[in-house]
Write a structure and sequence with these properties.
Luciferase, domain 3, Rossmann fold, GMP Synthetase, Chain A, domain 3, nine-stranded mixed sheet, eight-stranded mixed sheet
Length: 530
């Protein structure tokens, strides 16, 4: 298979080109639904005109709170094509977290599902929606009587009342430097920050990926990431449209993913190490025909060597290791799939992609010698525009010369490969989801029986890392299960600590802060004794 050599277009042009070349080709598979490229483009244009009919002006924000369904992809393309800025809202968050994001982004429009899995978003956000006058219209994928709204079909009806002339004008006049997507990530404080990604960022990022990876329009790509992640939105939705490939889109469910690979002939699968491990532990795994699968792309967290070897032996697929962060649009470093040695695949995160500068620096941002550990710094057109409403925090990570300082630690080999050495931040990654301890600690210490708390990421065979919470509760008036239930009430499920240790006293500094170093040493001793 030949690597993709064509230059990727800007996002608002991708579907026009794909539909012109492959109108009848399947673009999206979702359970029993199939959408071809002509239908995909028609639906996106209809929704884009609908948003314009509601009064969407260029540059206004459109919040999106939806599950991993085709309508989410339609809405993303539509908002951008109509000149809007799509704000991706994490569907795993609780009410307090979502309210913060709404107040920060102030979207003029909100496209949402009233409910998803165990979350009743309509009930959760009824009050906030009524009390946020900056939200001019809410459109729901499904009905609710808890607040005024338009249905999805009513939005489509608005679109039918307009033609494509104004939409075409907006496309032609659009600016590749403008922010078209806001993806929320967290900083060292754990406070969510909206990373602003431009059209140029996405075009450049995808273009560099496809010059490295062995992918083209013949591939069938499995996208089982949530679409509020850069991997799902940029690598999945945007990437498949750019390739003119078929995208199999759904939530991650191990048996369903294996069925999709077998029945749809998935050739490329994105994920994290935890997802690969879970697939191989699924009952009946050995009965599925996975022969179509060419390679797995793994990123977003540690990839244990045993999992990489098992992917090759048990799934018959190659592995590509990627490194990136939301602030760099998606990925910046990857192993080459065909040429790398096992040593490189097992122990490095690869070489910089074409057109991207990567260096390892000390605390004064001076480049360190090869082999020494320092902070990863990145420069290139893949680096984001900055944090929404947070110029000071942007300046802390992005300097005047365009270098993005990631907070991640690594060393660079003599041959240019990077070896991860951990993170300078306390953040840990549970199954591909970033968890910031201070955010969890703040919730735990709200409990009336808790005095102090410290959360630390510990290794886990499946998820890569999970949280362990040390809780200071003199007299032991609370149980681990109560702490977990308490956190689950306020935060997303992946932020709930896997383990909770209750103690009368925690090691403290003279000013009363928890000595996490002592607790980390305790964890190291435990691991040595195992």
């Amino acid at each position: 298979m030949a690597m993709c050599e064509e230059e990727v277009s800007l996002m608002w042009d991708l579907l026009d080109e794909a539909a012109a070349e492959y109108p009848d080709k399947t673009a999206i598979v979702h359970r029993d639904r199939r959408v071809n490229y002509a239908e995909y483009l028609e639906e996106v244009n209809l929704l884009a005109r609908g948003l314009m009919g509601l009064g969407l002006e260029p540059g206004e924000r459109v919040g999106m709170l939806m599950p991993t369904v085709p309508e989410h992809a339609f809405a993303l393309h539509a908002a951008i094509k109509a000149g809007g800025e799509a704000v991706l809202l994490n569907s795993r968050l609780q009410a307090e977290e979502l309210e913060f994001l709404l107040d920060d982004a102030k979207p003029a429009f909100l496209l949402m599902s009233p409910a998803f899995r165990d979350s009743d978003f309509a009930a959760m956000l009824a009050g906030p929606i009524r009390n946020r006058p900056f939200i001019r219209e809410v459109v729901t994928l499904g009905d609710t009587d808890l607040f005024p709204h338009l249905t999805w079909e009513e939005l489509r009806e608005r679109g039918r009342a307009l033609d494509d002339e104004e939409l075409r004008r907006r496309q032609e006049a659009d600016d590749e430097e403008r922010s078209i997507i806001v993806i929320y990530t967290s900083g060292t404080t754990g406070v969510p920050k909206g990373a602003m990604i431009s059209a140029r960022n996405i075009k450049f990022n995808l273009d560099t990926w496809y010059k490295r990876l062995d992918v083209d329009e013949n591939d069938v790509v499995g996208v089982f990431f949530p679409l509020f992640h850069s991997a799902g939105t940029i690598g999945g939705v945007s990437g498949c449209a750019a390739l003119k490939a078929t995208m199999v889109l759904d939530d991650f469910s191990p048996a369903e993913v294996l069925r999709y690979i077998q029945e749809e002939g998935i050739t490329v699968l994105g994920g994290v190490a935890a997802m690969a491990a879970i697939l191989m532990l699924t009952p009946g795994f050995e009965d599925y025909d996975l022969s179509s699968l060419r390679f797995l792309f793994m990123g977003a967290g540690p990839c244990p060597p045993e999992i990489l070897r098992d992917v090759k032996e048990k799934m018959g697929a190659e592995t590509v290791i990627g490194y990136g962060l939301t602030e760099s649009t998606m990925g910046n470093v990857t192993t080459t799939m065909l040429d790398d040695s096992e040593e490189h695949k097992l122990h490095t995160i690869g070489l910089p992609l074409p057109g991207i500068e990567v260096r390892v620096v000390d605390e004064k941002h001076r480049e360190v010698p090869r082999g020494e550990i320092g902070e990863i710094a990145i420069r290139g057109d893949t680096v984001f525009k900055g944090y929404l409403n947070r110029s000071e925090e942007t300046a802390r990570v992005l300097d005047g010369e365009g270098w993005l300082y990631t907070g991640d630690l690594a060393s660079m080999d003599a041959d240019g490969y990077l070896r991860m050495a951990g993170r300078s931040k306390e953040m840990y990654i549970r199954g591909g989801e970033n968890v910031y301890p201070c955010e969890v600690e703040e919730v735990i210490t709200r409990h009336p029986q808790v005095m102090l708390a410290a959360v630390i990421g510990i290794p886990h065979a499946v998820y890569g890392e999970v949280g362990r919470a040390y809780v200071m509760s003199p007299g032991g008036g609370v149980t681990p299960e109560e702490i977990q239930a308490w956190v689950a009430e306020y935060l997303a499920d992946y932020k709930v600590p896997e383990e909770v240790v209750i103690r009368d006293m925690l090691p403290l500094t003279p000013v009363g802060k928890v000595l996490k170093k002592d607790l980390e040493e305790e964890i190291l001793r435990e691991r040595k004794e195992q």
